[in-house]
Each structure stands twice: as C-alpha cells, then as structure tokens.
Sequence to fold (1002 residues):
Amino acid sequence: MTDVGEEPETESTGGYLRRLLGEQAVHIAVILAFALYPVVYAVLVRTPLGAEFDVFLPRVHTMVAVLYIGLFAMSFDFISGYTGYLSFGHSLFYGTGAYLVVLTATGKVPMLGSDTPFMALLLVAGILAVAVAVLVGLVSFRLTGVYFAMITLGFAEVAHVFIRNWDHVSSNPRDGATIAGGDGFALGVPGVDTLQVEIGRIVGTNLGAVFGLGLGIEVDETWVSFYAIGAVVVVCYFLMQRIVHSPFGRVMIAIRENEERARAVGYDVYRFKLAAFAISGFFAAVAGGLFAGYSRSVAPSNTFDLFHTAEALLAAIIGGFGTLAGPLYGYLFTASVEGVLSTEHHGIARYLRRGLSDAMLSSGAGGVTVADAIGVLVDGRADLYLGIVFILFVLYVPHGILGTLRDRLGGTVAKRLSDRLRSTFGGRHR
Amino acid sequence: MTDPVVLSAVDVLVDLFQPGTLARIVLDALSKSALYVVIASGLSLIFGLMGVLNFAHGSLTMLGAYLGGAVMVALVSSGTSGPVRFLLFFLAIAAAFGLLTLLGGAVEVALIRPIYDREPLFQILLTFGVVLVLDELARIAVELYGLQPQSEWQAAMGTAPGFLSSWYGVAGVSTRGLYLFEVVVGALVVVAIWAFLTRTRYGLYIRAGSEDPEMTRALGIDVRKAFTVVFGVGAGLAGLAGVVLMWDPRFGASVPLGVETLLVAFVVVIIGGLGSFRGTVAAAGVVGLTDALMTWLFQNHVAFPGLPEMAMFLVLVAVLVVRPQGLFGVAEVGGH
Amino acid sequence: MSGDPPALELDGVHSYYGESHVLRGVDLAVETGENVALVGRNGVGKTTTLRSILGLTPPREGTVRLHGEDVTGVETHEIARRGVGWVPEERRMFSHLSVEENLRVATPPDADVNARVEEALDAFPALRDHRTRDAGDLSGGQQQMVSIARALVGDNDLLLVDEPSEGLAPFIVKEVVDALGTLADDVTLLLVEQNFPMAMDLTDRFYLLDHGEVVESGQSGAVARDDETIRRYLSA
Fold:
C-alpha cells in the first residue's frame, strides 16, 4: 500500500538530486503540464481550429477552480479515502475558510482588521477549521459508518442554515456576501514585496504589457491567480502527501483496513482519527479561503451546501478514492464536462447553434427540432451526464482513474512510473 | 434589577401557555409529524431490510410532487365537479405511488443489486448518482413541457379538491383542510405499514430478512425479491409524500424539494434509529413538535428565520451524542 | 449398488473465503435415512462444508448433488426449498421475532402454516409456553430447540446440524441430544459436532475432516474412543 523507500547508505549530492528527480518525475511532469496549460490554451484557440479548442478545452478561469476545488476534494479524500470515515459535512470547513476571508475583508470579524494579509488569513482560516474539526470530531468519532457520515452532515447543515440566515453576513445572507472594491488579495512569500502577487477576477491589473509573449496573448489577472493559487495548492499537496506516506499515514490506512486490529496493535485510533480530521479540515479551509480570495464573493450555495461536499465526492470517486492526487484529476474531468456543456458562449450548445445551418437546426422528427434537442439535452446539462458517469464509475471503476492505474502498475503511480522510467532510461538506482 | 433574558423567557412561557397558542402549536406539530412520517417511512423500510441509505429518496418525493401535479393539470378542468376532483386526486396519489414503485424496483434491480456485496459506502454513492440524474431529468421535463413557472402549472394548485384549501375550526383554532388531511394520511400510512410488517407473510419475511438475510435465505425465502419489493414500495411511499407536498404551501413542487425532504427524512430516520420503524414514527413526532415549537418561537419572539430548520439538525446531533444508535435503534444495526 | 442416488453427495468440492482456500476437495455421501457425523478440529472446514452445500459459500470447484441432482451454483433459497434444513452454529434466532414467528417464517407458503406450527410445538412442548415471547429473550437451550424446530417445519428431509451442543450446559445438551435422537429416525442427518462421543452416539457413520479434506471415515459404532488416528486429528 505505502512504499517504504530504501535509503542508500551513502550518496553524493549529485546522486541524491538525480534520485529525487527520478522519484518526482511524474510530479514534475504534472506540474509542468499545468504550468504550461494557459500558454498552450492561448496558442491553440488562436489556431484555425480555435473555436473547437475553445469549446473542448477548459478555460484558465475554469482551471483556477480546478485548483482550489481540487484541493478541497483532496482534503476530503485525505480523511474519507484514507481512514474510511466518510466526511459528509466537509463543506463545513471549506465554508468556514471562505466566509472568514470575505467577512474579514468587509471588516466584520472582531480583532482581524480588513487589511490583514491574505497569507495570514489563510493560516487563520486553517487554524479555525482545525478547532471546528476537533470539536465536531470529538463527538462524531464516537460513531462509525453511516452514523458518522450523518452526524458530520448534521453539523454542516446547522452551519449552512445558520449562515443562510445570519444577517451579520450581509443584508441578504441567502445570497452571501461580496467584497466591494479594494485591493486584490496578495499571495506570495511573506515579507518580500517583490514576491507578492494579487489574485482575483476583478482586480483589473493587466500585466499584458509586461508579459506580452509576442503572440498577442494577454496575461491577465486570471493567469496570475492561476499560478499563485497553483503554487499554494502544490505546497498543500506535498504536505498532505508527506503525511500520507509517513508512519502517521500508515496508521490512517490501518484504520481503514481494520480498525480493530489497529487498536489491538496499540494505537490510540481515536486520536489518530481526530488528528487526521483536523488536518483535513485545515486544508479544506485553505481551499475555501483561496476560492473566496479569487472570486471575492461567497454564497451559502457554493460553500456550506451539501452539494458542495458532493463536488468533492464526485471528484474523489472519478479520480480515485484513497489516492491523494486522484480527486484533483477527478475535478478536472468534472469541470471540463461542465465547461463543454455550459450555457455560456464557450459551451458546445452555442457552438452548435452558431455552426449548424438554420435548416439543420429547424429540421427534426415528431415535432422536436434539432435546436430543441440541443436546448434540452445539451445546453447546461452537465449534471445529467456527470451523474451517469458517476454511477458507471461506482459500478465498474470503483477505484477511479488513478486507483485503477495504480492497481495496474502495482504501486503508487508516481513511484511505479518513475521506477519504470528509470529502468527504461537506464537510471543507476534500480 | 431583573435579568432581561430571564424576563423575556418568562414572557415567552406565559405567551406559550395561552390556550389558543398551545392548540395551534399542537395542530401544527401533528400535521408536520404526519408529513415527516410519510416522507421518512420509505427510507426507514429500505434501510431496515437492505442496509442501504437511499440518497435518491428525496428526489423520488420531488418526482411524486410533479407527477401528482401533472395528473391533476391534465385531467381536471374548471368545469370538473367536486366529487370527480376528489376521485381524481386519489387517482393522482395512486398513480404517483404506482409509477414510483416501478421506478424504485427498476433502480434496485439494475443498479443496486450488482453491488450488495461491496462496502455500504458504495450503495450510498450509487444512490447519490441517481439523485444527480433524476434531478436533472426533472429539470429537463419541467423545461420541455413548460411546467414552471407557467400559469397553467400554477393552475394546478387550484385543481385539488375543495376540502384541501378550505379552513376548518378544530379545538378553537382554524386550520387548513390540507393539514388535517396530512394527519389522516400519516395515520393511514403508519397503520398500513405496521399491518403489512406484522400481519402479512411478506412483512414477516422482511422483518426476518432485516435481522439476518443469510439465515432467511437458508429457510427458502428469496430475500432478493423482498429487496426489490421493499425498494419499490419505499420509492412509492416517497412519491405519495410528494403528491401531498405538491399542494402544501410550506413546500410545493420544485427540484430543490428533493434535498429538502431528503434531509428531513435522514434526520427522522436517524433520530429514530436506523432500521426501526417504531423509532421512525416516534422520531417524526419529536421532529414535528420541535419544528412547530420553533416555528412559533420564530414567528413571535426570535427574529431568526432559520430557527426551525437549525433546531431540527441540533436535535439530530444531540440524539447522536447521547444515544448513538438513535431512540429505538439496536447498536449493531447498519454496522455490517 | 442400490437404485436410489444418495440424498447428499459432495464430489471434489473446493471452497474459499476470499483468498483463503478452505475446502480442498471434499468427497462425501449421505444415503437417504442415514445419520452421518462430520468431525474434526476447529477451523478444518466443517462449517464451510455445510455452507457450501447450502450455496452460502458457493464451491469454486466440484459438485454438490441432492438426490442425484446437481445443485452447485444454485441460489441458496432454491437449495433450501429442495428439502435442506439448516440448524446453524450459534443458532441464529430472529431475536426480534416471537418463537411462533420464527417458525412461521420457515414454513413453506403452500403449507398449512398454523398446523405446522402446532406440530412443531407438540414436538418441543417446552416451547409452547414461550410462543409469543421474542426468541432473543429465551435461554440458549430453548433457542437451540427453536432452531431445530425451525429446520423441521419446512418440508425438509435432509438436516444440516452445526454444533448443537456448543455453549450449552451439560443437562441441556442431554435434552438437545434426546430431541435430535428422536429426529434422527425420521430424517437424513449430517451433524457437525465437536463432542466426539455425542456425535458417535447419534450417527451411523462419520467423516473426519482435516485441512479441508476427508482424511478418515467409518462406522460410528465401530470406532474406539482411543483410536490412534482419531486422537491425532481431534486433539488440538
């Protein structure tokens, strides 16, 4: 299940670096692919097939959501996939992080000024979520299985109902709150001004002049947000990955496989579960904070809602339950499908209406025209197809994309692919 | 100096024990409890026998609401006489129950049957996928047939028999016919299920199968068939609840009705103890009373609209803390 | 060679629990009317043999025949309807059903249920006083009686009885033995039992199981209590 790395006794620095590169080859490749994506996308949509690429490739704005919701899905998987305790109220932590950011920025949180640095806010959000997770967990981990799922859902719904009706949030708490005006939130290395960038959709700082790239590609705030948020997500991923592969992570898996045995061996499983839940809550809150910082507005429906936990669940199942990175790919899939079937201008429905002739659109059978069919079966129908895909995954691909790959390769994908690469390309360390 | 909180608490109590107030709250609690029993009983039966927590339960209720409305809109015109309307209304209830029973049976055979031997988690996940599909199909149908918000559909509200929208005086309080009807439906559903479970051969199989499916099979009983039947009947009950909710001004037909009723059903079934029908009935009473009290408190004393809903979930949390297996649950049930 | 095929016949049966290979080619036969004991240490596959016959742990290899008819891979409830009754280990009462309901569940739908229940209560008079009580509230011995009665009310001619004396006080074991002894004359019996002398008293023949295989068989009356082979396989 987990790989116990065999450490060579002595090793030169160069050898160490090479080994590190080899081991991390898949990680590096994935990060590079993500990093290059905005450029690739920008180039592709300027080719003759640009309209098609625009429909089928997720936009950079969508990719930003893939990052923060992907992080949320990973944090959900961290507790649910690794310990087997389904955290059905996970949106509680995401919502806590998101609302903390927006309420602080609008000056509604005591002791935190509206000018609190964003990095500090993310940390406070995480710590607050840890406290909430410990309180919820103290009660909930006395239960197992369906009961655990339901009590966590109960807690999240209490918060959901509360936030939907709390008039401190805004004059219309059902619609949430928005940060009006002000500077964008800064992400970067604390204390180093030159290494800080502002994220957010409506900041309006157009960096096009600075990074023109000579291709007529404008580097806007969405790009900046993508890289800045991406950096935070990468750091969070590696932190969680280290934990999962540590002795602590092995206890988490032991709890999932056979909790009685883990207890019999002498682990205080209650504490381990509580700690894992707190860590998971921390990262969920950071994800929520990133979302709020980027979108500059929050609403109950996209934070505390049961269906927001469902996003994570969907992503985790499709990507691979109990594989840390899987949920991110799972959400990439979800978001891509949603993007293609979107009702907006980059969706396939508008593309078809633009591309097909009027005669074609008005043709049809039994009183239903092609145009009607597009409107009913395609336009904004992502949930229908995602639901079907989800059911098919549960029935036929229960380990998800990454989990199935892992089973085929016989180890974690990152490790096995790296091993294979090294053996293929003649690496000296096996 | 008297503490203002104590003072207002005394005010509230004095207010509460006015005869009219108490009667109104009790009536409200009765109609809500009855509704919650109807909403939750199907879920309770299915979990009791199969150990499957059916997340699609609320969506089936939502479909029932639309089906009931559609039947009435299609068959009732302004000229339809009172007694005919009355009959058609029961036809709508029967249609929703029948169609959703078939749908439930089909879902069980096609989707849930293949995964009984997997962890219970997968059954939750699968029914969750069914929610996504059913909700979206409902949206498609609503759009395709122009059900909402067109005036024709609004007219569905007026197609119900007159006694539902009339007002009646009970114990000095005037109340809608619909709320009294809900109490009757709730009582009928409880009696029918109780009689089915304890007085029929099939009910006996279901109770035996809930306790030990393997032993039941070894006695020559096809438990799988019982699973299909119970899943179907559970879905049918969800649909029946939907038809009643369609004309209830506190609910009405909409796609989000699915989640709303699902959460209520979860709360009731879990407070009662998963797998215990008696517990479900008792819990519906507790939740209905809490809801009625908190609604009254919100309307008269506390300016927080989320109070009733929040109280419901707080009761859930409190019960699980004090008695994790629910009011009537057996500790092992559902553990697998 | 008699004309009738055996009531029960296992031919090279292999069964697994997940990945663990429990039965490794079990061969045995029980003639109609015969009473046969299946003995062996804990964990050698006795219970699994019964579960494989019933299709609860379907064999991956080999065949199970009832009166010459292949029932391998047939659903458990179908096998049970062909006249196989099961008195499982630890009795497995429906503890929330009354004694009478426990018997009713087991009665075939086409039978006269009330008459069957009365017959069973006549056979076990001790249960008559408790017919409306929840089976879970009865003593272990009473539960064992209900379990045996439950296997009898369905038209069963082959009874698979698993460890009937387990966890019972000695004087209750005697009651159970008496009940089984009376029964044994009327039905075909395959008895799994740790208590070797008791098993030998109740049966005509025995099979000795070890590591998922039959290692010894013979006449129950003829085997000496201190037989070398038996001692070797039974002592833990």
